Amino acid sequence: MARAGGERSQRREGPVCGRAGARAGRPGLSLSRSLSQQQQPRLGRRDFRLSRYPSNHPKRSASGRGSEGRGGSSRPRRHLPEACPGRSKPHRGALLLRRLRPAALPGCSPASPQPPVPDCGRARSLAGAPVLPSSDRLGVPSVRRPAVAGVRARAMAAVELFSHPALHTRYRAGLCSAAALALLLITVLTYVPPLLVAYRSHGFWLKHSSYREQPTVRFRYEVLFVATTGPGPGSFLAWSTFPAFNRLQEDRLRVPLLSAREEDKNQDGKMDQLHFKLELPLQPTEHVVGVHLILLFSYQLYRMSTLVMQSMAFLQFFSPVPGSQLYVNGDLKLNQRQLLNHCGLDTRYNVSVVNGTSPFARDYDLMNIIAAYRERNVTTVFSDPNPVWMTGRATDTPFIIDATIRYPVEVILYQPGFWEMIKFAWIQYVSILLIFLWVFGRIKMFVFQNQVLTTTPVSPVLPVSPVLSYKLHQS
To answer: What is the pTM of this model?
Structure first.
């Protein structure tokens, strides 16, 4: 009874160890049945059932004593040998039993210490079935072998060269492959020739540009007037709004009557024309055969660069017949010999055309004034005056100059900025590039799709429709 109780207590040791031992015992049973006659003698039914347990297991010891107590002769029990016959290494069955013992499982403690079982070396297949490693049999994950370094290197070196726009197939190859070199050549032929074509066709870089603007012009009420009365060197009458010039004229000074009116016809805040009238009183013996008239203006531009300058309108007319009135009607036009800047403030010519503070006569000479004024790169001229010379003046009537000067909208030439030049060049380049992109895109698609050069095509994995993923119900 004591032994039976001991057996029950040993059987009921920890639920984990018992279950693990039972689980570990089943593979040993199946493998023991597959042993051949050459490797193991034939076992009886009872001995075969007890062969699952180690030699020092209490159940095996109790069963042995029971058979002896009964005094009956029984067939001698034959257990798996601890070592392979004729070999220095242990038998494979002993190795299998050692791996299936409860002590080999994590968290299990056997009731009594067990002697180590020698290993049988490398496991061989029993009855045609391969023996799995102990880690796979016991549920412990085995360590996988690392991937081959050459495969990894080839996978890392392969890059995506082309992707089909419709099929979404990607083509991969190495960086130093023929496909990569061909792709580089196609890319160069796609983007470089359009640039050369656009540049060699002239007009690629925008050298100058223009815009329209009506200038802000105001009459400064500064006048220099000289009337020729005869063919002699001193036969003239003069007057100006500069006191220094008037002091130099002495008895040839004649003060006229002036009237000036600026008009804004379209009510845009900028003056559109000037009505100027000068009446010069004459003696009954004096006759006017020629006129020199200088009118000074303030001229300003604001749209692109800010230009502020002082300009003039010069009027000159001669006739062999003495006249009574001169009528002119023209435009004050801008004359450029240099491009304006696209931004900034330009005040180079914001100085008076006539140096009215100078006491020297040479500063009021018409030739010197015109010569200095024409040295400027930006000037204004009185263009298309369409003069009308009238004769038959009465003795008590003055000589009249009636002038209408218009301020038209000007076409301003300027040097374009960097971004404007890039924008204009980009439009020309892209218009030619689109043709090259279409042509070489078809060539690239043909080369990769037909595998003219060796590449690795990678097709996309299309998502499965959720309707098709369900299993059809069979009624």
So the answer is: 0.59
